[in-house]
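## retry 2 of 3
previous attempt timed out at serialization; input unchanged, resubmitting
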Amino acid sequence: MAAKSNNQVPADPAKSDLSPQTSEIGGMEISTTFVYYCAMTTLIGAFLAGNTLHLSLFTPQPYRLGLVAGIIGGIVGAYFNHTASFSIAAQHPQALEQQLETVLAELGYCVVDNQDIEPDTQAPTPDCLIYRRSSWHKFFSGPIIIQRQGETLTIISRAGMIRRLRAQFS
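## retry succeeded, writing output
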């Protein structure tokens, strides 16, 4: 996949789902997310169908049943877990950032220190903050990345979280 080179901010920041910043930071697009969830759910579904219904895994029947479950799992997984973003323009970005930090704290997110970042990932730049949940919750929810660009904040996370944040800031 080619990286997008369009550096323009959309005219209506509230309606930008995939901005150029998403490809710079990295993340799964909706098609990649669908394939991942579909394949994993198909394998698990075929194994469970084979064991539950006493079908041999050398026949196509458990895989047909697993494929039905896989397509459903792929659609649901892609809907909630693909990487999405939206931008908020504000005259006072510091106040907006404080409000956003309060909302994220209520959801259980806190800013990640540079020491907590995995060694294979880049450390955040001064205009980029990474929020993660603490304790065991971090394994079931992705990070929230906030990029500051002048008077615009771009929020990047899983689609389900973006929908939730967009509803609070609209």
